Amino acid sequence: MTVDWKSLVAQAQPTTKSVRLCLRGDLVHALAAAEAAGDDSEDLRQQVTDATVTFTIKGLNRQAYRALEAKHPAPDGAAGWNVATFPEALVRACVTDPVIDAGDPLFDVLTPGQVEKLFEAAFLACNEVDDLPL
Fold first, then answer.
1. Which residues contact 105 (CB under 8 A, 6 or more apart)?
2. By three-state DSSP, how is residue 130 classified?
3. pLDDT tens digits, residue range 8-23?
4. How far apart (Å, rounded) are the C-alpha atoms in residues 115 and 68?
5. What is the pTM of this model?
6. Cα 26 from Cα 48, distance rounded (Å)
7. Beta strand 16-22 with 52-58: parallel, antiparallel or unpaired?
8. What pLDDT sits at residue 48?
9. What is the 3-state secondary structure (H, E, C) of 10-66?
10. Do the beta carbons of residue 113 and residue 121 sit within 8 Å?
């Protein structure tokens, strides 16, 4: 059986990842404390759910990824990309939902760990090969 690869190329879609982040760390802490104390914390659980955002991240094609790397070169001519600027730029380029505008203050309120989680998903969406569930 011959695969019509040209047809498949025309249908190609980037790797997609999802990252859920609760933007209210105080609620996450309160929920963990309530659960540790054995309290029924249905109200807190709902508040955490309401404060949680699911970020949809789509990988960039090779040309777009390399262009972004070129815009954020490592300092002093070192190999790789600028660790101070590239992660946020990659996340901004890869997050498709919710829409993050250039001036959006999201990165001013996220913790370094939350940014790292988004960056890891964006990096993998661009560089990882999907495992096929065969």
1. none
2. coil
3. 888 888 899 999 999 9
4. 18
5. 0.87
6. 9
7. antiparallel
8. 96
9. HCCCCCEEEEEEECCHHHHHHHHHHHHCCCCCHHHHHHHHHCEEEEEEECCCHHHHH
10. no
